[in-house]
Design a protein that fits this description.
single chain, 388 residues, alpha/beta, 7-stranded parallel β-sheet, 16 helices, 11 strands
């Protein structure tokens, strides 16, 4: 049999800027990153804004227009920004990507055009998916506006939407052209949304960086009241660790069965869908992390004192570690949340791979979960789960 093996590699590179006042006319971060590959060209862009951001920043659309006028030598605004519903509803709407596809078509956006996505992680995911599937990929500039999206999803390479009751069933790997983390957006968030973004930083500390975990413990009181500088440093360090994993893991597009950055997510994703997305992503992941940390200790991997430190940090921050969805059972009397293990395996393909802890800052992959032990951990979590 004759066989030719086709092999090639493509380097990916995208800047992540940490800034303030990204659309202030004197801030050149946006125009600089747009023209970084073709500095003398006039670049066409279209902005999509999360409706929650638009309400909090009533002059945002005008600011973008003024910014384009200020830098008209290099920027051309295709039309006024499109404002769409944010939150998980954006990812649950089966018509959302198609509406964007039509708008991109009507505007004549091409592969050198930019889609600027301004909003939280759900908007980043849904609009990013629509852009990735238009002309096989429009250029995307992400302007994440939540704690969670600035330290995690907004700096990564994934997008997607929910379908058939499954989180991120449809999606693509599509690195952005650039990311602009503007800390000014954080100030307009509700306390609930600020808090819901912190668990993703705790997650990456638990699996990658014990020193960062210590910093989080030392600054838990400042973080609980969302002190500005502590929040900004937490977001930046969390983003750096997420980006470092993507760059150095050897599997940035998750071709294998391991997803260490999804520590706590098999239960988190299931709890989101079980609660009909009443739980924020970060809220559900916090519960999932606490559960997997308890399991790690129950099977002798994680020292008990380190489990106590993890639970103490979460409760000190005021994170809720229990939701009644954990107690729901299906017709067979099995805890419904445990179905999340099967969903997780199907999403990955191949064998089940779950990241647990053998110490703070040291994640380890396992391929089997004892459901009886996990059930006992769920029961134990209920006693730990009242808000601190």
């Amino acid at each position: 049999m004759n066989c030719h093996v086709q092999k090639f590699s493509i380097p990916y590179e995208y800047p992540v800027h940490f800034t303030r006042g990204v659309f202030d006319s004197g801030n050149t971060d946006f125009v600089d990153i747009v023209r970084r590959m073709e500095p003398d060209r006039r670049h066409r862009f279209f902005a999509v804004i999360d409706d929650g951001v638009a309400k909090a920043w009533s002059d945002l659309a005008d600011s973008i227009s003024r910014y384009a006028d200020k830098h008209a030598q290099y920027l051309q605004l295709a039309t006024e920004p499109m404002i769409i519903e944010g939150g998980e509803a954006a990812k649950n709407d089966p018509h959302g990507p198609a509406k964007l596809h039509r708008r991109f078509y009507e505007l004549g956006l091409d592969r050198q055009s930019f889609v600027v996505i301004i909003g939280g992680g759900a908007i980043q995911d849904m609009v990013g998916y629509a852009a990735a599937t238009t002309h096989r990929g429009l250029r995307v500039v992400r302007v994440p506006t939540t704690v969670l999206s600035q330290n995690d999803s907004g700096v990564g390479v994934k997008n997607g939407v929910n379908a058939f009751g499954v989180k991120n069933f449809l999606g693509a790997f599509a690195p952005p052209f650039a990311v602009l983390d503007d800390f000014d957006f954080i100030g307009t968030l509700s306390a609930r949304d600020k808090l819901a973004g912190i668990p993703e930083s705790i997650k990456v500390a638990l699996i990658r960086d014990s020193e960062f975990f210590t910093w989080l413990r030392d600054h838990a009181k400042e973080l609980r009241v969302f002190e500005t500088e502590a929040m900004a440093w937490m977001i930046r360090r969390g983003a750096e660790l997420h980006m470092n994993h993507i760059a150095t893991s050897g599997d940035p597009f998750e071709m294998g069965a391991a997803r260490p950055l999804d520590f706590g997510h098999w239960a988190g994703h299931k709890l989101e869908s079980m609660s009909d997305y009443r739980l924020r992503h970060g809220e559900a992941v916090a519960i999932g992390m606490a559960l997997d940390a308890c399991y790690s200790a129950a099977v002798g991997m994680l020292p008990k004192d380190e489990l106590s430190r993890i639970i103490d940090l979460l409760t000190t921050l005021g994170v809720n570690l229990w939701d009644d969805c954990l107690a729901q059972k299906n017709a067979d009397g099995r805890l419904e949340v445990l179905r999340g293990l099967k969903d997780f395996q199907e999403h990955l393909g191949g064998d089940l791979t779950v990241t647990l802890l053998e110490g703070i800052g040291r994640g380890v992959e396992v391929h089997e979960i004892d459901e009886q032990i996990m059930t006992r951990c769920i029961e134990e979590l209920k006693t730990k789960g009242s808000k601190g």
